From TrEMBL:
Taxonomic lineage: Eukaryota, Viridiplantae, Streptophyta, Embryophyta, Tracheophyta
Presence of the UniProt keyword DNA-binding in the record: no
Gene name, Swiss-Prot/TrEMBL: Vigan.08G055000
Gene source species: Vigna angularis var. angularis
Signal peptide, first to last residue: 1-26
Catalytic activity: L-seryl-[protein] + ATP = O-phospho-L-seryl-[protein] + ADP + H(+); L-threonyl-[protein] + ATP = O-phospho-L-threonyl-[protein] + ADP + H(+)
Protein name, per record: Cysteine-rich receptor-like protein kinase
Subcellular location: Membrane
Length: 670
């Protein structure tokens, strides 16, 4: 993505380019700043000689020509690149046509480039081989709007282009090219293409394609097709298929030639036949025995290597786990015997204490409840998994401690307490201006996206709320308290549970009512968080005259009446009014009743970073009720487990707001 940088869009159709791109001057930039040449000069003659020599390189069957000709200031460097499904003769014809049009459009420029439907041709008087270049850049769009949800279309397109970028960048020095398709809303299909000049490294190809993709929101938002072309790469997406099968680069093995030798002597022929009859079977038997011995030897050696690798892997995991374990007495001394004066907060899974190690490092220690029923091995395994999560917007787990029934989690210390300490306190909220709040919103989004898509594990947090967002010295947000999180398989989209845990007001309806949770459950919680950050109000209730109204209902009613600005915290100035209204719009999209209507975190990151991207119209949010028909209790953490309690009654637990509840584990194993 994004984003995620925006890794979302793809190639403008090679077929559509005739309609969209056309052979205009915009597609043939001539650079006068790099110097000019005169007709029939040495440079001119070298240029003509070089470009006309492409057809002489008959060994090239992969559509990429990169050659130079001449010496000194008159040396010419040229690159010709054809689409990956063009046959050699078609490629050369397209390059020759480009050569003619380029000479007409740029008659005396030493540096020029042109893009057509089938190919790209560029030349210059400087070395360009293996150099990633982004300028000049051209982009166009297909004059057909997306039908249905633009956000869902963008999400499908993002997934497609991530895959095509990865495949193209993994190509060899002959071809870095990928095509593919993916279904989109309303029975649409998106066809995409990505290509780099093969002289680029995999990293440069990925970077070039990512930067090309990031241009799409500026030119083609809401369009069914578009493309971006650069000197080093090009991308394209289209509602119609525009490419053929990619050419196979490796030529077929030519059939071995055979000669018929006739003997002038029947005796010699009979002797040769006798020798063949005897020797061939013997040779076959010997060969089979030799191959069998080699196979058994290699199999034994492979098993030995695999066993050694397993042993090394196990040793590495053990060493890693041991490196995370703190001596219990060390932690006890660091927290001054878990003194109340060092206590930062109390959560549903235990108390959190501030501590300082002997080297001066400040830590936050969570002392888990002793009735968890978890064994030492399971606890170590879970800690080991969570310790591998590394992201600037997640609180980092440093290690753990064990002593009898004691379970301790050691985290980095985050000094500026939690988000709720600021946004819900009338005296503290003025310290968070809009720019700071917007930075916090985007940071939380990046952290959730990492958990959902980019980490080694796929994790659903299930308890995202303001008190679980900690702020570091620069007020960067860090997601904390993974005590209710769940590990899921990468291809799982939804999971059912009979143990519903979370915080009232932040839980998605399908989870609160049916125990069904997914990545879209976290999206719902994030939507509530956005609205709270913008408004400075808790979702538990807002005074509305003589009645109470929850934040989602108040935000929806205000937005529907065209008065969304009423939601904004009065302590904020109106200099960034459009940005605030856009965040309210995104928040309402996140809290839709139907989880299908909620955007993914990848799409949300894109929405937050690209103001030119149009947003779909939200529907009535979940739990919406008229403010006169209900009142809202204080927010509470609650848990329902019919299997353990044998009852359908929810078990309510008081959720104490913590100052710095730095917690990150108790993941339920798969």
């Amino acid at each position: 993505m994004a984003s995620v940088s925006f890794t979302l869009f793809s190639f403008l159709p090679f077929l559509c380019v005739i309609v969209i791109i056309s052979q205009s001057s915009a597609q043939t930039p001539c650079d006068n700043s790099k110097g000019n040449y005169t007709i029939n000069s040495t440079y001119h003659n070298n240029l003509n000689t070089l470009l006309s020599s492409f057809s002489s390189h008959t060994q090239i069957n992969y559509g990429f020509y990169n050659f130079s000709y001449g010496q000194g200031e008159d040396q010419v460097f040229a690159i010709g690149l054809c689409r990956g499904d063009l046959k050699p003769d078609e490629c050369l014809k397209s390059l020759n046509d480009s050569r003619v049009s380029l000479a007409a459009s740029c008659p005396n420029q030493k540096e020029a480039i042109t893009w057509t439907v089938e190919c790209m041709l560029r030349y210059t008087n400087r070395s360009i081989f293996g150099v990633m270049e982004n300028q000049p850049t051209n982009d166009n769009y297909y004059d057909l709007n997306v039908t249905g949800s633009v956000a869902e279309f963008n999400a499908a397109l993002e997934s497609l282009m991530r895959n095509l970028t990865r495949i193209a960048a993994s190509g060899d020095s002959r071809l870095k090219y990928a095509t593919g398709s993916t279904p989109a809303p309303n029975f649409q299909t998106i066809y995409g293409q990505a290509q780099c000049t093969p002289d680029l490294s995999s990293e440069d190809c990925t970077k070039c394609l990512d930067e090309a993709v990031s241009k799409i929101p500026q030119c083609c938002s809401g369009k069914a097709g578009g493309n971006v072309v650069k000197p080093s790469c090009r991308i394209r997406f289209d509602p119609y298929i525009f490419y053929g099968p990619t050419l196979k680069l490796d030529p077929d093995v030519p059939p071995s030639s055979s000669t018929n030798n006739t003997s002038s002597s029947r005796g010699k022929s009979n002797t040769a036949r006798t020798i063949i009859v005897i020797v061939v079977p013997v040779a076959c038997v010997v060969l089979l025995l030799a191959l069998l011995c080699i196979y058994l030897s290699l199999r034994k050696q492979r098993k030995k290597i695999e066993f050694e690798r397993e042993e090394e892997s196990d040793e590495d995991e053990v060493a890693f786990t041991e490196s995370l374990q703190y001596n219990f007495n060390t932690i006890r001394v660091a927290t001054n015997e878990f003194a109340d004066s060092n206590k930062l907060g109390q959560g549903g899974f235990g108390a959190v204490y501030k501590g300082q190690l002997s080297n001066g490092q400040e830590i936050a220690v969570k002392r888990l409840s002793r009735d968890s029923g978890q064994g030492d091995l399971e606890f170590k395994n879970e800690v080991q998994l969570v310790a591998k999560l590394q992201h600037r917007n997640l609180v980092r787990l440093l290690g753990f401690g064990l002593e009898g029934r004691e379970r301790l989690l050691v985290y980095e210390f985050v000094p500026n307490k939690s988000l709720d300490y600021f946004i819900f306190d009338p005296t503290m909220k003025p310290q968070l201006d809009w720019q700071m709040r917007y930075k916090i919103i985007k940071g939380i989004a990046r952290g959730i996206l990492y958990l959902h898509e980019d980490s080694r594990l796929r994790i659903i947090h299930r308890d995202l709320k303001a008190s679980n967002i900690l702020l570091d010295r620069e007020m960067n947000p860090k997601i904390a308290d993974f005590g209710m999180a769940r590990l899921v398989l990468m291809d799982q989209t939804q999971i059912n549970t009979s143990r519903i845990v979370g915080t009232y007001g932040y839980m998605a309806p399908e989870y609160a009512m049916h125990g069904q949770f997914s990545a879209k459950s976290d999206v719902f919680s994030f939507g509530v968080l956005i609205l709270e950050i913008v408004s400075g109000q808790k979702n538990s209730g807002i005074n509305n005259g003589e009645s109470m109204e929850d934040l989602l209902s108040f935000a929806w009613r205000s937005w529907k009446e065209g008065k969304a600005i009423n939601i904004v915290d009065p302590s904020l100035n109106s200099n960034s009014r459009n940005e605030m209204l856009r965040c309210i719009h995104i928040g309402l999209l996140c809290v839709q009743e139907n989880l299908v209507d909620r955007p993914t975190m990848a799409t949300i990151v894109l929405m937050l970073n690209s103001h030119s991207l149009s947003l779909p119209i939200p529907a009535e949010p979940a739990f919406y009720m008229n403010s006169r028909t209900r009142s809202f209790p204080e927010m509470q953490s609650w848990e329902y487990n019919s299997r353990e309690r044998g009852s359908s009654e929810p078990i309510l637990k008081s959720a104490q707001e913590s100052e710095n509840e730095a917690s990150i584990t108790e993941l339920y194993p798969r």
